[in-house]
Specification:
The protein folds into 2 domains: about 5-150 and about 350-365, 3-Layer(aba) Sandwich (Rossmann fold); about 170-300 and about 330-345 and about 375-395, Dihydrodipicolinate Reductase, domain 2, CATH 3.30.360. It is built from 12 helices and 15 strands. It has helices spanning about 5-10, 35-45, 60-70, 80-85, 100-110, 125-140, 150-165, 190-195, 205-225, 305-315, 350-365, 370-390; strands at about 25-30, 50-55, 75, 90-95, 115, 140-145, 170-175, 230-235, 250-255, 260-265, 275-280, 285, 290-295, 340, 395. The chain is globular and about 60 Å long.
Length: about 425
């Protein structure tokens, strides 16, 4: 899909509309937190001819050393505030632990910088709202790490879903399963909580903020509305190694019209991997796989072993306990589906996301919906986590709603 088609199907991609106009522009960026995720973003940013990476900040020296191998000319700071004092820096990329996002981003806005902040953008719902408000007050560009917004297959999926190609969407089932302890090796015990910050409640909210944040945004994007209440459950059932965040979570997001979005994540089994299943009465979409399936593909024959059992029972008992000889199992059918973009996906939108941020900084124009989608994605994962912790169904608070026409919400403030 060319840039023109992308821009037409998703209004936030209007950021690319001025690509030619900004051909001679160049922005200077600093990166706060060049750890593994930060360096992944850096791999794209450092190749962008319109972007100059001029500084890094991190309290962990090995991360600075690795980043400097990629951009040797950049300055390095242990204190991010020193980086923000550089008035020649136009914007910052924040890829630090969750509990530090809010203060760093607020300081960056106050320093007059444009901001890209990895998801989730804040540790609490109140912080999330305050951060969004500061973005509005300063008028600075605000991007969040929701790369699916820029993934061509997701953009095409939403275009088709909203056109009604798959009928009425009654539910979205999202899940992300892994099999691993989520730990990283530490050179000494005193660095455990610094390096494995995702495992401790003081710095992380675990699977909900690290994984669900991506997929919940896909669900509300498809349904075009916010849930009215959330319930959930979570526990540490397998990785009993001193971690404080759950190793499995399950949430149900209910909508006023009866529709539902479910979310589940288990990190002791990876068989089903990750997906967002968008279920319409005419078809199903699996955007992570990059495929869609129509309901009327055709009747599938009963599996061979079921037919054998039915024939065997017919001979002995003269009756089929499998609901008759015409029984057709209501399971995933033998349906190969079709690729959304004609081929298997080979990227996840991160490159386009970073390109869009650079373009926005160069033009100093905030694309529509980017900040709002990132805002609600964070709020959805945070309220889901809170519902799990409290063990009760929670309403989505009116006080946390912002003016956002696509979801029909109005700010209470």
């Amino acid at each position: 899909m060319g840039t023109g088609v992308l821009a037409a199907t998703s209004p936030w991609l209007s950021t690319f509309a001025s690509v030619d106009d900004s051909a001679h522009e160049r922005c200077r960026l600093g990166m706060i937190g060049p750890g593994s995720r930060g360096r992944f973003l850096l791999s794209f940013l450092s190749q962008n001819p319109k972007c100059e990476i001029v500084a890094f900040a991190d309290i962990y020296q090995p991360s600075l050393d690795e980043a400097l191998k990629m951009v040797p000319t950049a300055k390095a700071y242990k204190d991010y505030r020193k980086l923000l004092e550089d008035k020649s820096i136009d914007g910052v990329v924040i890829a630090t632990p969750l509990n530090t996002h809010f203060q760093i981003a607020m300081d960056a806005f106050d320093a007059g910088k444009h901001v890209y902040c990895e998801k989730a953008i804040a540790y609490t719902m109140e912080q999330t709202l305050a951060l969004y408000r500061r973005h509005q007050e300063t008028g600075k560009v605000f991007f969040t790490g929701q790369q699916r917004l820029f993934d061509p297959r997701y953009i095409k999926v939403m275009e088709l879903v909203h056109q009604g190609l798959f009928g009425e969407v009654a539910a979205v089932h999202a899940f992300w399963n892994r099999n691993g302890d989520w730990r990283r090796e530490v050179p000494s015990p005193d660095l455990e909580r610094l390096i494995n910050w995702r495992l401790y409640s003081e710095s992380s909210k675990g699977l909900m903020t690290e994984l669900a944040c991506h997929q919940l945004q896909v669900g509300t994007w498809a349904l075009g509305m916010l849930p009215s209440r959330v319930m959930g459950s979570g526990a540490i059932t397998f990785w009993k190694d001193g971690r404080e965040v759950y190793d499995n979570v399950h949430c149900i997001y209910e909508f006023e019209n009866g529709k539902q979005m479910t979310y589940a994540s288990v990190i002791s089994n990876k068989f089903y991997g990750l997906e967002e299943q968008i279920l319409g009465n005419k078809g199903t979409v699996e955007p992570e796989r990059g495929k869609f399936y129509f309901e009327d593909y055709g009747p599938a024959p009963a599996p061979a072993f079921v037919q054998m059992l039915m024939e065997w029972e017919d001979k002995i008992w003269g009756v089929n306990t499998f609901a008759g000889s015409s029984w057709d199992p209501e399971v995933a059918r033998i349906n190969p589906g079709e690729f959304i973009l004609g081929k298997a996906p080979d990227a996840d939108g991160t490159s386009l996301l970073t390109e869009a941020f650079v373009e926005a900084v160069c033009t100093q124009k905030q694309p529509p919906r980017i900040a709002e989608e990132g805002y609600y994605a964070t709020q959805l994962c945070l309220i889901g986590h809170e519902a799990i912790v409290q063990g009760t169904a929670l309403p989505f608070p009116d006080s946390m709603k912002i003016d956002y026409e696509p979801y029909g919400t109005k700010s209470a403030q």
